[in-house]
Amino acid sequence: MQKYKTDGISGLLEIKKALGAKGKIDDTAIAALLEELKTGKGFSSYGAIVEWLKEEHAQNIEYATVYAWVRYRLGAKLKVPRPQSHKQDEKLVSEFKKTRNNSQLSRRTSSTRQVCSVSVQSRRRSASGQDETRVGLKTLTGKVITASGVKPTVEVKWPRENFWIYGAIEPLTGDHFLYEYPKLNGECFQQFLDWLSVQLGSD
To answer: What is the 3-state secondary structure (H, E, C) of 82-138?
Structure first.
């Protein structure tokens, strides 16, 4: 009755809307976070975003809140990054992309060579398949959180300390021959053939 007396019938019919709880992450931090997710560098985990908000914007936000905002409201999720050398020159990459359609790229294809030895006396033939492989170190990369539609990149350092293993195998007998070399070139390959010839002997 008091409402009717003060505001009349229009006051009784008025529908009020609740303002709702204030967002825990302020608009400035959200805008900065979205820009960070668009860079392609992204974050290694949702926990890293929690720490970033705390350090950069003094926002002490719970993990569950950050996850809900980033994953469902901003549409960002963990993705496998594209490796990129830490020495890569962005200017040279851009120039290459412009000119690659007008230039012929030479592609080195891996092939399997055959090494055959024939015994003149017994006329017995043996065929061996031969190939090479490089063994070395490689940076391990995990997934990165970036904005929707943004392909993440991660800088990697691939040490050049590696070596090549030259090998040959006789499919019928299972006999195999392996030897380590520092490089993959004609000189090392010839050394391998000479060594393999000694191992096979008169066969």
So the answer is: EEEECCCCHHHHHHHHHHHHHCCCCCCCCCCEEEEEECCCCCCEEEEEEEEEEECCC
